[in-house]
Amino acid sequence: MSQIEMIDLSKSYNKQKNVLDKVDLFIEEGEFFVLVGPSGSGKSTLLRMIAGLEEITSGTLKMNDQIVNHLPPKDRNLSMVFQNYALYPHLSVEQNILFGLNAKKVDKQEQKRRLLETAEMMGISELLKRKPKELSGGQRQRVALARSVVSEAPLCLMDEPLSNLDAKLRSQMRLEIRRLQKKLGMTMIYVTHDQVEAMTMGDRIMVLNDGKIQQIGKPITLYNEPANLFVASFIGSPKMNMGKAVFHADLNQLVIEETIHLDIDAVTYEIPSDSNVTIGIRPEHLYPGTLNNTSHEIEVINVEQLGNDTLIVFGVGKEIWTAKWPGQWDVQVGEKIPIHIAIENLSFFNSDTGLLIKPATTSKQHEVVTA
Amino acid sequence: MSMNSSVIQQIPTSQIEFERAIKKQRVKNFSKGILFLSPSIVLFSVFLFYPLARTIYLSFYLTDATGVTTVFVGWQNYVTMFTSPIFLQSMKSTFLFVLYTVPITIIISLFLAVIANEKLKGIGFFRTIYSSTMGISVAAASVFWLYLFHPSIGPLNLLVKAFGANEIGWLTNPSWALLSISITTIWMNIGFTFLILLGGLQSIDSSLYESADIDGAGYFYQLRRITIPMLSPTLFFVVTVAIINAFQTFGQIDILTQGGPVNSTNLVVYSIYREAFVNYKFGSASAQAVLLFIVILLMTFLQFKFGERKVHYQ
User: Fold this and answer.
1) Quick one: closest CA in B to A151, which residue?
2) Which of A84, A86, A90 is facing B230, going by the closest CB pair?
3) Sign of the CA dihedral running A314, A315, A320, A321
């Protein structure tokens, strides 16, 4: 049983500007919740406030409907995995895992049972007698996880646990952590700056920037209907292509970055009449043009062959856009190639406030798997 | 194009030529290294290696008052030394002195360092105070303690009298003098030891403590299971340096007691000094110096052999 509620949670150091500003959040029991944001956005601070390592300046933090603002870390019944793993270098893996149970004076038999069970689950049974410095990065990571699992706390906090691993190991550990969380049914709050980790692991994601909540929602919602320009550019890789757009009602034309002209029917397609509009389009929605539907020609600046996809980079006014075409395309730098831009793939944002006016309409059409 | 060919330089074609070039580079590297080392080689030779050799040489001779060797006596200086009750007393006092000062200095400094490591307002003030004795010269500190120990007007005796006890002859009573010197030395050494230990404490990763906090470990459990083991390399260094320093104590003895009363504070280095520059027996003074050198070497070696096993390097 562990659900968490934050009401107007704020944090400031030395009465300066708020590092975290009025965070309102409800995390369900058994949920995998990801806090994502660029460095300095306050995500780690928020996690440390939940852990009790950082004082709460104002607001209320509740766990299972109990106010816990005043409780020290040990009374909050949670476990935490640190970015650098925080393993004790002078203790063996076994002693590291049992450190907390020893401190809490858990019965020796019980300790033994939990140790063996956890080590088995994490696949580190052969490493129990080793010191942390004799382990590889991935093994250390597993020990850190084991230490958190062995406490049997219903809430687990993770502070960028995968950032010290190489790319291959990272994707493997992503899967393992996710499976572990589902298997044990614990509530997980996971901090990362990596949007791929956030997208792939989270049941729900909260995007933070400058101490303010940008958006909370399911990964796919954040991708399809980003609440503002920040979320739009932060979620997704390569990032969403952006451009200033002006709608000329007399010509029925939308002009993007004074370069791309799109003919649209203003009557059937409601275009926001604000003068300051920024449009966004995902790289995979910049299709290769065919004989029938080519809308524009662009000049290629750079080509990245990924094997399964081809990234084509080109300039639109002052902006650099990327198109992601499935498969392998033989395109040369400097070549002029046809592309297809469809109006229904555009998301519209208010340039001044950054807020979403109208999401891309195609994103609503989910592919459905049929048996 | 001509550009391409001119960039590639003439390559030695035969095997011998290119081996010679490598050899030349090695010689060049070696001489460069020696050049960089030469200042320390010269300094160490003049002020360390030569005096060491000279001391060993002198210890086998009798000398006149100016230090010129007169008669070769072989091991005689050493034999006399080990049969002299004054020297044996001096060795005993030295070991007692080490035993009194080293553990107490380290325990007090460790305690101060642990409390000064807390994140509190104004902790900088206390850190400065605790480490301040490092900035006081041995002479100044000794004069200050000379006043504290003064039999009639010294604050220590005033305090003793206030409690109704008899005055203590801090520096004049043979059974108190070594203790008094030890107290002075402990006070003087706390600054340095404190600073090194505090540095060691601050280099311990704070996430270890945070993790322990979450695990529910109490303050003393953390102190015993995290702080002390993580501090062990620093502690080892401090113990080694403190022992060597204690064996070499000289200044405070010269000012406070001159080795007295009844030779009770005549530690080895002071004994060497008296033998050489008061009695002008450079031969036997050298023999004592050689013995001190061997004792310190042995102590340090034993520490590395047995102490280092319990040290956890990162």
Assistant:
1) B215
2) A90
3) negative
Q: Which residue of B has its CA nearest to A147?
A: B215
Domains of chain B plus CATH, in order, are 2-58 (no CATH), 84-310 (1.10.3720.10)
* Backbone phi, psi, residue B151, to 5°: -60, -40
Which tokens in the block code for residue A337?
Answer: 């190639």
CB A81 within 8 A of CB A157: yes
Token output for B233: 């390399």
Tell me A360's DSSP state.
-
Distance between start and end Cα atoms, chain A: 36
Any A CB within 8 A of B216 CB: yes
What six digits make up the tokens of B104? 């107490």
Bridge partners for A263 per DSSP? A253
Hey, is the C-beta of B214 within 8 angstroms of any chain A C-beta?
Answer: yes
Closest CA to A178 of A154, A206, A164, A198: A198
Name the amino acid, one letter, at B168.
I
Question: How far apart (Å, rounded) are the C-alpha atoms in residues B208 and A115?
Answer: 20
Q: Which residues of A touch B119 (CB under 8 A)?
A: none
Place of tokens 């007169």: B70
- Give the ranges where chain A is alpha helix by DSSP (H): 43-51, 93-103, 108-122, 137-150, 167-184, 195-201, 219-224, 229-234
Q: In chain B, what residues touch A147 (CB-CB under 8 Å)?
A: 211
* Chain B: residue whose CA lies nearest to A51: B214
Provide the token pair at B292.
């001190």
Q: Which residues contact A120 (CB under 8 A, 6 or more apart)?
A: none
Q: Is A151–B215 a contact, with Cβ atoms under 8 angstroms apart?
A: yes
Q: What is the ipTM of this complex?
A: 0.83
Which member of A72, A90, A100 has the closest CB to residue B312? A90
Residue B196, classified by CB atoms within 10 Å of its CB into exposed (0-12), middle (13-18) or buried (19+), is buried
Walk me through the domains of chain A, giving residue ranges and CATH numbers. Answer: 4-230 (3.40.50.300), 240-364 (2.40.50.140)
Reported residue count of chain A is 371
pLDDT mean by block of 10 residues, chain A; 371 residues = 84 84 90 92 91 90 90 90 91 92 89 90 89 90 90 91 87 89 91 91 93 92 92 91 84 82 69 75 90 83 92 91 92 90 87 86 60 49
What is the model's pTM? 0.81
Closest-CA distance, A78 to chain B, in angstroms, reads 7
Q: How far is A75 from chain B (nearest CA, A)?
A: 8
